[in-house]
Amino acid sequence: MKVKKTVRNIKLTIQYDGTNYHGWQVQSNGISIQQVIEEVIFSIMKKKSRLTTSGRTDAGVHALSQVANFKTNSTLDTDKLKKGLNSILPKDIVILDAQEVPLDFHAMKCAKKKLYRYDINNSPFPDAFSFKFTKFIPYFLNVSSMKIASQHFLGTHDFSAFRSSSCGAKTTVRTIYKIEISQKFFNNIENRGNELSFPPCCISIEVEGNGFLKNMVRNIVGTLIEVGRKKLVSEDIKKILASRDRKNAGPTASPQGLFLVKVFY
Question: 245 catalytic, yes or no?
Answer without folding.
Answer: no
